[in-house]
Structure prediction request, 280 residues.
Amino acid sequence: MTVGAGMKIRPRSISISSGKGGTGKTMLTANLGIALGNLGRDVTILDGDLAMANLAIVMGMHKCEINFLDVLAGKAEISDAVYKNYNIKVVPTGFRFEGIHDVLADLKKERVEKSMGELLHQTEFLLIDAPAGIADSTIISIAAAREMIPITNPTYTSLVDCYKTVRLANVLGAWTRGLVVNRVGRAADLSLEDIEHFMSKALGAMPILADIPEDPKVLEAEREGVPVVVYEPECPASAAINELAKVVTGESDLPYTPSAEHEIDETIRRLTRALTGRRA
Prediction:
């Protein structure tokens, strides 16, 4: 399908990241994207987990013939890999992992630059679902975005891994305003106060942007292949994600100006450099 045109250019690229698998990162990417779309924002979500992609599954998209890997391989244009679902645009990566190394090794800088430029110039928010951990693929996804929203569970091991991810983002020059705590409310968990104290002591000011409660509706929605903000808009988890969307759209202290052309060019350079491993 073709990406829409004629909109005001104010692109922001945000990587949704976690230091540990199973925190709810892909769930947050999908549902935050839909929540932003419900606020009238033009949103594109991109599956940056090239080896273990599952964003399409969370979005209930099982028949995407063309995906992001086809674009990187030069077999398709980026517009061919953009699908509309729940009133937002989705760029899936697909379910196959064969040949990923060959695709990345043979990437052409000009092809990536053209694709990312086209994508960014026609969206207001680009959310990138990053792989968990701090492997090369994670570095690619974080380095590609100007901003990062880390997500953690309220456990000590998850929190420590989240801290490492934020440190990595700092090194890569991605701005992190705060973090999201998912699955809050279980008896043995760290309190929100403990989490803020730990992160502030380790990193300086690092507020909690949203705390998403443990909610059975999230698992129900996952089983049905429907994002929870669509499946049960009034449940506690959906309410928390919708409030987070308002926080994200209300940013007034960004360290860059999204609408400035040189900032758009810088974002394209970051995306290209991250994917190709070369200086753009």
